[in-house]
Amino acid sequence: MKKALIMITVSLFPRLLAAQELNVDSLIGENWYGLYIQGHKSGYSVNSVAKDAQGVVTVTEDAHIRVSMVSAKQDMRIYSKRTYAPDGALVSIESAVDDPSGKSKFFARMDGDALVLETTLGGETKSERRAKPKETLRDALKQADLTGRGGKVGNSLSYSWFEPVYKMELSAKSSIIAEEERVLEGVSTKVFKIKTVIEQLGVETSSFVAQDGTTLEDVIGGNITMRLEPKDLAKDVNYSNDVIVSNAAKVLTPIANPRDRTTLHLLLHGPLTSEHVYNDDRQSLTPAGDGFDFKASRVSLKGITVAHIPVTAPEAVEWTKPTTFVQSDSPKLVSKAREIVGAETDAVKVSDRLCAWVYQNVHTEYSARLSNALEVLENPKGDCTEHSILFIGLARAVGLPAREVAGMIYVDGPDAGFYFHQWATVWVGKWIDVDPTFNQPLADVTHIKLGEGDLFKQAKLIPLIGQIKVEVAK
Predict the structure, then answer these.
(1) Bridge-partner residues for 282, per DSSP?
(2) Phi and psi dihedrals of 450, rounded to 5?
């Protein structure tokens, strides 16, 4: 959700085809788009194609998000510029996310047969070499390629592109599923409806594209819309969309004693797939009629063999390693984690200490941020995302396996319901859910786990945002 405007690339035809075979000149210029979340105007994007005198082409997306989060105004800018040589070869990718905490930057450039990727997060820059991606200019201008060469229903193309935020090459397939005639600026124009499936994420995009390759509208995951608009209309955005409240699953029957319950039974409805089904000691999620049956029970640690840090269990050791957004090898994180934990090695007690410290020291405020552990340590404030990412960074820094969990949690009050939420799971001899936002060493039964893993894994929840309905079972 934090990076919804993803460029999909074309890879069906041989890479030796020259970029000039595409009518690049017809696409030069900029287009303005209004951005809508759940039908509410939430921002705008200006997308452009440019070519210099030497034939170097740049493709740029510059999205500005303006939303409210429980009445707190939030701004985020997501910027991407991809540069291609005259023969269509990828030269570089520049990406940045500006949010209330600062700027996260990602810069990739070709160096022979390798891609050099520099990532700047939390004030630290790291560089690494990766395999050369297959991406070319033809990929960036995929819509023009698909619709411009005698496009017709049934035509399809496969795509791949390198995404610096995820540090990986993604792939997708687009297919023309319908066509129609529209009058655009007084001229009858053929418009194609294109369905795109991003394979690794399981996210489907529906697009309306003019014959010249201009995107008129994208609907991403069924809840994020990018619509071509005049510049003044596109930029006309206030902060009326409260993304916390508008995406919640309200309930008709309030849940009594939500934090102290020993069991909970719910019925879930919405576009859930096997990718979102997690069954463990705390919860079970099983198909039932046109939805899913959710049951949760309070977890007990009685009788388990408690692990000691640093944990080396084969099933968990992977989750002690640093990642892009969990910089657990940073001396600052290691020093703070050791200060909090002291000489304690009991994994349960270590987890409890870290949970309590994060709860007590991170000031709660809602924020639209691309969070990382080091940044939160330096600027300790934020919502559930910031609490959980810092907790995970501190845990891994002392050898306690931990990973991100995403889903929903029940919140009482006038707008009682289940709100999208993030917490953590740690290995203490078995995996347990921990919620540092609410200082819960064992997460309560109102937590509905729908995703587990890093930012890339959590992107699979995009189709669920605002689409889940919850009933409290009798």
Answers:
(1) none
(2) -125, -10
The whole-angstrom separation of Cα 246 and Cα 71 is: 12
For residue range 260-271, list pLDDT tens digits in order: 999 999 999 999
Count CB neighbours of 171 within 10 A. Answer: 16
Tokens 């030069």 locate to 28
Whether the CB-CB separation of 390 and 396 falls below 8 Å is answered with no
pLDDT tens digits, one per residue of 126-153: 999 999 999 999 888 887 778 876 788 9
Q: Which segments of 2-71 are extended strands (E)?
A: 29-37, 40-51, 57-69
- Residue 133 structure tokens: 């991606």
Return the closest-CA partner of residue 102 out of 74, 122, 85, 86: 122
Does residue 191 contact residue 181 with C-beta atoms inside 8 Å? yes
What gap in Å lies between CA 225 and CA 177, rounded to an integer?
19
Residue 113 three-state SS: coil
User: According to CATH, what is the number of the domain 247-472?
Assistant: 3.10.620.30
Locus of tokens 């000489």: 343
Alpha helices in 45-166 (DSSP H): 137-140, 142-148
Contacts of 150-154 with C-beta under 8 Å, sequence gap 24+, read 151/176, 151/179, 151/190, 151/192, 151/211, 152/176, 152/179, 153/177, 153/178, 153/179
pLDDT by residue (tens digit) across 313-368?
A: 999 999 999 998 999 999 999 999 999 999 999 999 999 999 999 999 999 887 77
Query: DSSP of 301-336, one letter per residue?
Result: -TT----BSSP--TTTGGGGS--SS--TTSHHHHHH
Residues 225-247, buried b or exposed e (16+ Cβ, 10 A)? bbbbbeeeebeebeeebbbbebb
By the 8 A CB rule, do 160 and 171 touch? Answer: yes
- What would the two tokens of residue 455 be? 């930012």
CA nearest neighbour of 104 among 165, 170, 42, 169: 165
Count of residues making up the chain: 474
Q: How far is CA 224 from the centre of its chain?
A: 13
Alpha-carbon gap, residue 115 to 106, rounded angstroms? 12
User: Does residue 431 contact residue 318 with C-beta atoms inside 8 Å?
Assistant: no
Tell me the two tokens of residue 82. Answer: 């991809």
Closest to 138 measured CA to CA, from 198, 184, 87, 66: 87
Inter-CA distances, 9 with 170, 194, 240, 290, 387, Å: 9, 14, 34, 35, 35
Tokens of 394: 């501190």
Regarding beta strands 363-364 and 381-382, do their DSSP bridges make them parallel or antiparallel, or are they unpaired?
Answer: parallel
Domain borders along the chain are: 19-234, 247-472
